[in-house]
Amino acid sequence: YTSFIQPVTASKLYNDIKSHKDLVHFETAYVAKLHRIARLAPTQCVFTFIHPEHSTKNSNQRYKKLRFDISPDTGSAIVHGFAGYFDATLYKDVHLGIEPSTSTPNMFSWFPIFFPLRTPVCVKPNTPLEVHFWRCCGSIKVWYEWCVTSPSASPMHNSNGRSHWVGL
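Above: the chain sequence. Below: its structure as tokens.
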């Protein structure tokens, strides 16, 4: 299976998170049906996993730096966070996914994930947006970390899984 992300403007979701007035909510990834968002650039592949993985030498930790070119037609864009999707090949040509360009028709059981930014990033036309994503693994938990490095630097989100993680 492969994961994908794309930068989005999501004012309502961002303001709901901000209303909690704490760091934890800005470092939590949310599964949400994304209403009233603006998709600012095409999705890009983040991580790919092949299962079953029989080798004990291969780690499930991952890192990816992505560069998005925001459409100049949008003018300046406000990035509140990143929408995350997946696409999976279950068996031979049996496919299931929610990545917008290849999503499985009439599938309502899976929703995107939203990775918020503590401070929205304003991206001017023809200025690249660079984001870094890590999938980290510890002895008892798995978590994601993310940050923006261009056009301005954001803090690292969810460092060491301090706010959000999944137990093994």
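The radius of gyration is 16 Å.
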